[in-house]
Design goal:
By secondary structure, the chain is an all-alpha fold. It has 2 domains: 12-45; 55-92. It is built from 4 helices and no strands. Helix 3 packs antiparallel against helix 4 (75-93). The two termini are 44 Å apart. It comes from Sphingobium wenxiniae (strain DSM 21828 / CGMCC 1.7748 / JZ-1). Residues 6-43 form the Ribbon-helix-helix protein CopG domain. This is Ribbon-helix-helix CopG family protein. Pfam families: RHH_1.
Length: 96
C-alpha cells in the first residue's frame, strides 16, 4: 500500500451528509469516497479523465473523417478550408 498523508478539511454540513450517504450506498468508507472524488477531480483538471479521453478521441475521429471526405469529394476546396481554419485559429485562439 502506498504511504498516505492525513489532510483535514472542513465541509459544509450538507456536503458532509451527501458524502456519508454516497459512501454508505457504495459500501466504502468516507475517506475512500473522498480519495476517489479528489483523484477524479485532479484527472479532470489535467484533462486526462476517461471522459476527456473519449471526447478527444471522438473529436479527432470526426475531424479526420470529415477531412478525408472533403479531400475525396471536394479536393478543389480542401486547401482553402485548411487556410481558413488556420486563420480562424489565429483570430479566435491566438495561434495555430
Amino acid at each position: 500500500m502506498t504511504e498516505t498523508v492525513l489532510i483535514s478539511v472542513r465541509l459544509p454540513g450538507s456536503v458532509a451528509e451527501a458524502a456519508n450517504a454516497a459512501a454508505a450506498s457504495r459500501n466504502i468508507s468516507r475517506s475512500k469516497l473522498l480519495r476517489i472524488a479528489i483523484e477524479r477531480f485532479l484527472d479532470d483538471l489535467s484533462g486526462s479523465s476517461e471522459q476527456d479521453r473519449r471526447r478527444q478521441f471522438s473529436a479527432e475521429y470526426t475531424f479526420l473523417a470529415l477531412d478525408l471526405m472533403v479531400q475525396r469529394e471536394y479536393p478543389e476546396v480542401h486547401d482553402e478550408l485548411l487556410t481558413e481554419a488556420e486563420r480562424r485559429m489565429e483570430v479566435f485562439h491566438g495561434g495555430a
